[in-house]
Every structure is written in structure tokens, then in C-alpha cells.
């Protein structure tokens, strides 16, 4: 079996956090707000956590000094974050005042965000459009990420770029390729993206650990053994190296550090170092709240399968058809990977191929349409969990213009601190699989059309660009990390 190509820069040599516990008052040490600041309202989706389920980001953390160097956080770093928190608060208050007058939308006059978008649609899809816009602009203006230089490919500074774990490799590659801007440089778009990375750790708000769990599995794991000890050892060794060479880990116990993994074993690999697992920001595709994912501290990353380095041409060659040109109520094709899919296939496989086509893996090839043509001709696309909660079908459905139906328990959806998933998707608990068709048929046609409009609007957040562009998946992932950094202080 051929190995997937790698992405590497070295190949040649809320504010609730649902923008809810993010903006906090000035304080000392690692500080947690005593009262949530309701910048965004929580989702009503059964898949999304409620505010009560969102843990305090820095609960139980303590700062401590490490060996060598100044371990204090530069005052300018926290002052920048204080200014951002205040700006986002002001935007959120404006939104709340406007809620009593009209539809509650606050126009930003920024064409890259809301030009040509119906205000009611904007207000329904985003938890608070004004707060998100202000937070995103503050991120572009201020946010600085330091990438540790320690380590060498293929385990570090490298990752897959053409398979189901491709976001892991793409994120590492894209962040490391960003050149810090020239002194005094200004601008937006690509220029603003480049400004995220800094080579001066004293200016950094967060520190990135650029190892790839997918690469660890590829090079250090012995197939068939299910022995993950080598992965845990590699993570532990990397953290120990950066902690011994730099003061930054020890001053925060890892609270301002983040890793990113799209491998199923990413959560387990983080257990290799107790402080990383307990205190760090873990950006994960396998965002399962029943297995320890913390929506207020960790980041849910979309799982995107880039088979040949990009989205399938069938999903990008032409605009998605309208609801009136979609004869199928819903569609699914896939293998029996785990309990959820087994239940789905057992209840719905082959029941009504004219309206509700559900195939087991490979069977759709015998039909009159290919896989992506089915998606483009269905109003709803079923996205059940596999062996783990995340599925690349969610993003494929968005690109097909099809309303995703999230069939899962415990999946913390990507970017849910900003997006109202209930406005453009349907959440169905696993226990309701026998009622799946009844649930979907009960949604009025006008509501389906509104959901499809929402899908078209959020597509930009689930698109991979090279180089990265505003509001794409790279920047939305960074924005999620930014929100979590806003959620605590590291003053001493």
C-alpha cells in the first residue's frame, strides 16, 4: 500500500468560549472569570455542549518557574489581549442592544465578511456576527504564534497532505511557511495571515508543538500490536526537550501551548505528557466529549479527506444545484465502521432507493450515479460517526450544498463557538436512527431551503486554500486557538 505524500517545509534539506468564558477581567496568575460574559448564545443542538458542560479553561492550572531564563509573561502580551477582550466586549454589547431593534445584525462594512449576505441569514448562522467579526479582526491585528524549531522530519515539521489526516500536515506546513511581516507592515488577507507567526517568542501569545501524530503512527507504531507506548514516548520526549531549552512551557505548565492532530489516536498521544494533556490546548479532529475532549479548552478541527491534495473535482467544478433539483431526501454510502454505521445500515440499507438511498460500501457503484453525484442530488447527507466521532462527510456535504445530518453522540462540532450549527445542519442522536426518515421528512421545505443557504454561507470556513485565505479552515482553526488563549491570563 502506497504511503500518502507528506507536507513539509524542510523537504529539500466566546466569547462564551462559545465567545462565553473568553473575555475576562484583568487579574493575576492564571485567572478564570467568575461570571461568564455572554457574547454568544449556546447552541441548542443535541451534539453541541451546553454552557454548563463547558469547563473553565484554566481550572486547576498554576504557573511555576522553570530552569533558565525569564519565566514571566511580558506585560505587553497580556496588555494586547486585554485590549482585544475589551474591543470584543464592546462589539458584543452593541449586538445585544440591537437585538431589540430589527433583526439584530450589525453591519461591519467589511466586504470580506458580510458583503452581499442577507442580514437575517448572517444573524442566524453566526452566534453574534459583530462579536465574531471584531474577534477575527483583533486576531489578525494582534495574535502571534511561535513555532518551536526543535525536531526534524518526518515526525516533526511534517505531516500527511493527501489523505484523511491531511489537515494535520497542511496546518503544520501552512503555519511554518508563513513569513513574519516586515517591521511596520500592515494589510489584510495573506499579509495579515503572515503576521500571525513570530520568530520572537517574547511576543508570542501561544506556542505551537509541530509534531505529527499521524507520522508517529506511520514510523513508530508496529501494526497489529495496538501498542501506543512509542507514540506517548515521542510526545513526552518532545515536550521535555522544549521545556528544557526554553522557559515558556514551565511558566504556564503548557497552558499557552497547543498541538494539532487529525489522527484517531491524537487524544491518546497527548497523554504522553501529563501537563500537555491536562493544561494544553489540543486541536483535534477526534473531538469526542465522552472520551475527554473539553470544548472550552480544546479545539475541534474539521476532518477533511484531500484524496489528491484538494477537494474532489465533482464537488468544486460547478455550483451546487438548488433544492428543487435534488430528488433524494437523504443519502449515505459507506462501510460498517463502528456501532453507529452498523445501526444506520441495519435500519435503512436498501429500504427506498428512489427517495432515501442508503448503500453499504461499494454498492452505490452499481447504481446510475457516482458517490458525489448522489450527494449533489440529495437535500440531506447522512454523516454518521465511524470508529471515531468525526467524519469527512460533514465537509463533503457542505461542499455538495447538502444539509449535513450529524448522526453521533458526543461530537463537539468544529467552530461551534462562532457558528450556530442548528442553522445549517440536523443533529440526530444515535438512539433516533430508527426515526431518521421521519425526522427529516418533518422539516418544512422552507426550513430546508434556509439551511441550504446557511450551508452555502459557511462553506468558506471549511475550504482549504494554498496559501491560506481569510476565513478558511486554517484561519478558523487559528481563531479557535485565539479564543481559548483569550480565556485565561498568565500574568505573574
From TrEMBL:
Residues 41-77 are annotated as: Disordered. Its main location: Golgi. GO terms for molecular function: glycosyltransferase activity. Keywords: Glycosyltransferase, Golgi apparatus, Signal, Signal-anchor, Transferase, Transmembrane. It is a single-pass type II membrane protein. It comes from the Eukaryota. InterPro entries: Exostosin, Exostosin_GT47. Belongs to the glycosyltransferase 47 family. This is Exostosin GT47 domain-containing protein.
Amino acid at each position: 500500500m502506497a504511503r500518502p505524500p507528506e507536507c513539509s517545509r524542510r523537504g529539500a534539506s466566546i466569547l462564551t468560549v462559545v465567545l462565553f468564558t473568553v473575555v475576562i477581567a484583568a487579574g493575576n496568575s492564571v485567572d478564570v472569570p467568575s461570571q461568564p460574559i455572554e457574547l454568544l448564545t449556546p447552541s441548542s443542538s443535541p451534539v453541541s455542549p451546553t454552557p454548563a458542560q463547558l469547563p473553565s479553561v484554566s481550572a486547576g492550572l498554576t504557573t511555576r518557574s522553570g530552569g533558565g531564563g525569564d519565566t514571566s509573561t511580558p506585560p505587553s502580551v497580556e496588555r494586547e489581549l486585554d485590549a482585544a477582550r475589551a474591543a470584543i466586549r464592546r462589539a458584543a454589547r452593541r449586538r445585544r442592544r440591537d437585538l431589540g431593534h430589527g433583526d439584530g445584525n450589525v453591519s461591519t462594512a467589511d466586504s470580506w465578511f458580510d458583503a452581499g449576505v442577507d442580514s437575517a441569514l448572517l444573524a442566524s448562522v453566526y452566534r453574534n456576527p459583530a462579536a465574531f467579526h471584531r474577534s477575527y479582526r483583533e486576531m489578525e491585528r494582534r495574535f502571534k504564534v511561535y513555532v518551536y524549531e526543535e525536531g526534524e522530519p518526518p515526525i516533526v515539521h511534517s505531516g500527511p497532505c493527501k489523505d484523511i489526516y491531511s489537515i494535520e500536515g497542511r496546518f503544520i506546513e501552512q503555519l511554518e511557511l508563513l513569513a513574519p511581516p516586515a517591521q511596520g507592515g500592515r494589510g489584510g488577507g495573506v499579509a495579515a495571515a503572515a503576521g500571525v507567526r513570530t520568530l520572537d517568542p517574547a511576543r508570542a501569545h501561544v506556542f505551537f508543538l509541530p509534531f505529527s501524530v499521524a507520522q508517529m503512527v506511520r514510523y513508530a507504531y508496529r501494526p497489529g500490536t495496538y501498542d501506543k507506548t512509542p507514540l506517548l514516548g515521542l510526545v513526552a520526549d518532545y515536550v521535555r526537550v522544549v521545556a528544557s531549552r526554553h522557559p515558556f512551557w514551565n511558566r504556564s505548565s503548557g497552558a499557552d501551548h497547543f498541538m494539532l492532530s487529525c489522527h484517531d489516536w491524537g487524544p491518546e498521544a497527548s497523554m504522553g505528557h501529563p501537563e500537555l494533556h491536562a493544561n494544553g490546548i489540543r486541536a483535534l479532529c477526534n473531538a469526542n466529549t465522552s472520551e475527554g475532549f473539553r470544548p472550552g479548552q480544546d479545539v475541534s478541527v474539521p476532518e477533511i479527506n484531500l484524496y489528491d491534495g484538494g477537494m474532489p473535482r465533482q464537488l468544486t467544478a460547478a455550483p451546487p444545484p438548488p433544492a428543487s433539483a435534488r430528488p433524494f431526501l437523504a443519502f449515505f454510502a459507506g462501510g460498517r465502521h463502528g456501532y453507529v454505521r452498523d445501526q444506520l445500515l441495519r435500519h435503512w440499507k436498501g429500504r427506498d432507493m428512489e427517495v432515501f438511498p442508503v448503500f453499504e460500501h461499494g454498492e452505490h457503484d452499481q447504481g446510475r450515479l457516482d458517490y458525489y453525484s448522489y450527494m449533489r442530488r440529495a437535500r440531506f447527507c447522512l454523516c454518521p460517526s465511524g470508529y471515531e466521532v468525526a467524519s469527512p462527510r460533514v465537509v463533503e456535504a457542505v461542499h455538495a450544498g447538502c444539509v449535513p445530518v450529524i448522526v453521533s453522540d458526543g461530537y463537539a462540532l468544529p467552530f461551534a463557538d462562532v457558528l450556530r450549527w442548528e442553522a445549517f445542519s440536523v443533529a440526530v442522536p444515535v438512539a433516533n436512527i430508527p426515526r431518521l426518515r421521519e425526522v427529516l421528512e418533518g422539516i418544512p421545505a422552507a426550513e430546508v431551503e434556509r439551511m441550504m443557504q446557511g450551508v452555502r454561507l459557511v462553506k468558506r470556513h471549511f475550504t482549504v486554500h494554498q496559501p491560506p485565505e481569510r476565513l478558511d479552515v486554517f484561519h478558523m482553526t487559528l481563531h479557535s486557538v485565539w479564543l481559548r488563549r483569550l480565556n485565561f491570563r498568565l500574568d505573574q
